[in-house]
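hiii, so i know i said id send this last week but things got crazy w the move. better late than never?? heres the sequnce for the chain we talked about at the cafe, plus the structure i predicted for it. fair warning i was half asleep when i ran it
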Amino acid sequence: MTTAAPVPSVDPRTGAVRAQVAREATPAEVDRAVTAAVAALPALADRTRRAALLRAAADRLDAARPEILAAADAETALGEARLTGELARTTYQLRTFAELVEDGRYLDVRIDRADPALGRPDLRRTKTPLGAVAVFAASNFPLAFSVPGGDTASALAAGCPVVVKAHPAHPATGELCARLIREAAASVGLPAAVLTLLHGFEAGPALVRHPLISAVGFTGSLRGGRHLHDLAAARPRPIPFHGELGSLNPVIVTDRAAARRGEEIGAGLAASFTLGQGQFCTKPGLVLVPADSAALEKAVVAAAAQAPGGALLDPRIREAFLAGAAARAALPGVEVLLPAAPGGAAPLAVRPGILAVSAAQLHEELLEECFGPLTVLVRYRSGAELDGVLDRLGGNLTATLHLGDDEPPAEARALLDRLGALAGRIILNGWPTGVAVAPAMHHGGPYPAATSTGTSVGTAAIDRWLRPVAYQDVPHDLLPPELRD
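okay and structure toks below
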């Protein structure tokens, strides 16, 4: 019998192992976790108790703020200020979903009463939870997109028990948050198995393959996400796989915008692509600028050069970033405006990089996301060159357009229409980093940004864990409460 491997908590600033916090889950432990989650499903049918769980979880996370921030910073190097905001966002999400559950409008109830004259039966439509679901924690958001994050909150709100696959970059933080949520469940009379945390690489595919898992939420790399997506599709009973796999988040700067606001745009771009050491899924990684945008280019280089170097989320991500930046910089025709390199206060810190290339020499490798503080300026000389670059882009989470004050409306609308076909969120004269938790938010996009049409942020995220059911000619006393007259 093989002994399960230990799971280390690693300091990303130094690469040193801080502690062994758990062990990788065995196949038998994966099965037990999923089976227990399925057994907890009936208990979550009570909407009042679900809302109480979400609020209790938020309260416990807030109460443990010093402990959570210390654990998360030790494992991610994201800093207290960033993590304080992320925890506030996380607990706000939980409370927002509690309100949504109590309100009930997420069920989208539709009632068509019988009409004998038309030969129409009595029809009543609502939504029901899919069942136990698997959620994969993200590397770059140890709270808001991990154990207590939006996928977990929306799934619990829908009435789905959750089995979370922890991310190896922050296992101790995951353990702490899982314990608090399980304690919250017990405090409102729900089984702790409404949420279970598992560790280990092999636990991920095992969860996706498990016949009792009804859907998957994933935020991570294109390679890993596509593998899991294909496993979900290849099951004897395929299941929904809601994956966020990667995004370039292209930016277009028009001639008028560059001429009138070049320095302002350059400074804004530097702040956006270096935010969080470039580890946001909405980082602007490909920026289309007019070929004569000297003021913009000078401003972005100057501002980015002043950004402090910092550690990335873990040593593996750091190695991949430095190797990816170097490979891109070595491509023919690529100009290095600011070299991405090791450097900063921490031993494993890196400094941001900026590359530039003409639209005519744009290599395919530059159309792949490089996770970390690197952006690529693509210089275009005509509308035809701009269109040619847009034609080569895959799906994205965001697309940004910077216009001049006197931009012809027809040209502006045409550009917005082009970007609307490429991304799930369009930003005008701003920057994509930062995703508001609001009902109208959409965080998703065409493949490979996402593998489904749902959103992972905002109240509409609950729809991913529900399916419609219509009741025909069912007596009132047998109908779900929300469908009764």
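btw The radius of gyration is 24 Å. thought thatd interest u
miss u guys!!
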